[in-house]
Amino acid sequence: MATILVVDDELGIRALLSEILTDEGHTVELAENAAQARSVREMLRPDLVLLDIWMPDVDGVTLLKEWSAGGQLSMPVIMMSGHGTIDTAVEATKYGASAFLEKPITLQKLLRAVEQALVKPAQRLAAALRGDAPLAGDGALLPPSAGVLLPAVADGPRAEQSFDLDRPLREARDAFEKSYFEFHLAQEGGSMTRVAEKTGLERTHLYRKLKQLGVDLTRNKRGLL
């Protein structure tokens, strides 16, 4: 089992994650801000860090960048946020985050992300070469700097998909947004009105955005009326 550092300024979230991960057999250390996180990371060298983005002193992405620039990103980092954006997720993975989890975090997604993050990069590559990599609905076998778990849709909504970030930022963002909107279209039965409300976009702007991203709207004609 692993030593996992949970960094979050909310006491309730730290306690809940600690309880869940401890029940799974892991050793859990807690930090409520970046200063404590730096100290614990230096002393214990955890196997994994769960890092909240929005913290009062130094935000999680800034701390991630700091570790990355200082050669201290020797462990996988899973970012967490209740107010995450596409750009934030892309930026976090660019600096080495292995996954991005949106709050409230379900037990299944948490344990799956932790399990995948703790798999060594060499093991992930070997599994992929053997053809053992999981399907899109089961998450991604990718090195920490190359992937993130994102909403996906194929024949219907799925929990996660592998997302290749080894590409220019614009292309990565467009691919992310396409998956994001396809997911919500499937969730809302193709209703443009409900998707517009859910994503906070004006309906006309949403329609133009979907056309720009190449989202197939033929399956959702009823929702366009």
Fold and architecture overview:
With 225 residues, this protein is an alpha/beta fold. It has 2 domains: 1-118, Response regulator (Rossmann fold); 136-225, Arc Repressor Mutant, subunit A (Orthogonal Bundle). The chain contains 10 helices and 7 strands. It has helices at 11-23, 34-44, 60-69, 86-94, 107-117, 121-130, 169-187, 192-199, 203-213, 221-224; strands at 3-7, 27-31, 48-52, 77-81, 97-102, 150-153, 157-161. The chain has a 5-stranded parallel sheet with strand order 2-1-3-4-5, with helices on both faces. The protein has a two-stranded antiparallel sheet with strand order 6-7. Strand 6 and strand 7 (157-161) form a beta hairpin. The chain is elongated.
Question: Keyphrases for this structure?
Answer:
two-stranded antiparallel sheet; 225 residues; Arc Repressor Mutant, subunit A; 2 domains; 47% helix; Rossmann fold; alpha/beta; 10 helices
Percent of residues in helices comes to 40-55%
Terminal Cα separation, in Å? 53 Å
Q: Count the strands?
A: 7
The tally of helices reads 10
How do you describe this structure in short?
With 225 residues, the protein is an alpha/beta fold. The protein has 10 helices and 7 strands.
Write the layout of secondary structure elements.
Layout: E1 3-7, H1 11-23, E2 27-31, H2 34-44, E3 48-52, H3 60-69, E4 77-81, H4 86-94, E5 97-102, H5 107-117, H6 121-130, E6 150-153, E7 157-161, H7 169-187, H8 192-199, H9 203-213, H10 221-224
Parallel strand pairs: 1-2, 1-3, 3-4, 4-5
Antiparallel strand pairs: 6-7
